[in-house]
## 1
Amino acid sequence: MIEEGSTVAVCGLPGSGKTTYLAALWHQIESGEIDTQFKRGAYRSEYGYINSLRNVWLEGREQVRTAQGSPNNVKLDLIGREGENIALNFPDHSGEVFSSIWADRECDQTLLDTLQTCSGLIAFVNVNNFRKPIKLARLIEQARSLEELQGNSEALPESGQNVAHNQEVWSPSNSPHQVMITDILQCISSAPISAPIQKVAIFLSAWDLVSDQGVSPEQFLTQNMPLLSEYLGGGESGWDYQVYGLSAQGGKYRSHDSEDPLSPQLEELMKLPKPSERVRLILGKDDMKDLSSPLEWLLS
Ligand SMILES: Nc1nc2c(ncn2[C@@H]2O[C@H](COP(=O)(O)OP(=O)(O)OP(=O)(O)O)[C@@H](O)[C@H]2O)c(=O)[nH]1
Ligand SMILES: [Mg+2]
């Protein structure tokens, strides 16, 4: 039986797909167009914010970046499979509060409150915009070319400065995303945050952009984010985890204020009689539509 006042924490760097998921989830539950694990309960909460996200999603437009500062408190009144009433809290934080855990070693107080009271965590990674790890072989290759260039002084740029100018200055915020996410998960589970949660659903968002690669979400994680995959799978981390491929839009949406005509792909999506059918959620070999199904696992 799921507790009445449960909270799911939504974690992810800027642009990782958090708000889009909430918008699509709410549409599926509110419309009742498809069979979902959780149904809509009697309205007891404030729905202004989540309804505005849903309308943007229905129009095939990207969500506006979530503003920094206080999170938008989303509370959904739901009914579980066993008929239980659940008021599910889903605070929509901006991605910067998560970057700040990694880069500044600081945790926003409201996020801390969420983490210490939640039953489960969803961690988002956008497969379209994550910063990949640099392969050691590539670094060695670059170092060799630099050595060759230095050995051949005629080939060097006149002052030698262009080489330095082209190098990116390191800062915590331009680290590979898998390093940041692994560290954030580690911080969440250890002191001083010590969140009492064990389950994390990893959502690889914008999955429609990689679904033709023929790999499962778990394989994608192993191939592209080996550090995170080993951290989760190594057994030492303490997390019970599942990796999902999530397409909450089904394809590319227009930007929030675009006046451009719809792309052929978006036109097809918009023609679907049930907008809930735009969505895909992949877990292993299962290809699902119901965005609330991971919540059942997270909350039970
Ligand atoms: N192709 C595709 N793009 C997606 C999908 N879901 C999200 N995106 C894109 O990913 C980007 C970020 O999505 P948001 O939901 O705003 O991300 P967020 O994590 O809330 O970002 P912040 O509010 O900045 O923290 C947007 O450009 C979305 O259009 C999807 O299913 N498919
Ligand atoms: Mg957002």
## 2
Amino acid sequence: MVTRIKHMAVAVADVDTAVSAYERRLGVTDPRRVEWEQGKSKEAHFAFGEVEIQLCESTDPDGRFAQHIARYGEGVQHICLEVEDIAGAIEHALADGATLKECRACQKVGAHPHSEGFVAFLEGQAVPGFEVEFMQVYREGERPADFATGV
Ligand SMILES: [Zn+2]
């Protein structure tokens, strides 16, 4: 049901400082810069092979990445798992007692459109290791005209 890691979102205190470390130490070049107003974040996106890394700095002290850093320090805030059928993936997780988490950017619970696909978040403790975002990537013609840009 999970087909691959779509992206890993890393909470960082300062996106420019973080990018510099990835450039100097891991040879990352020219990451895509994203300012996502709705998500209250400044981000830098690049890929290691098929997996996109998103370095995310909250622009608001109450933002989800700032909150993650306050609790745990800098690190992986969530991993986005690509699924073929998001409704089925959610149903499967909820059937075992997982719960959905509100998307902080959109104030929506459950599957809803983002820039690249329909997404849904599970509450933090659904599995040990990381917060789960499911994404059903848009097929041809599925992308709504008005969707949040960003992650
Ligand atoms: Zn959302």
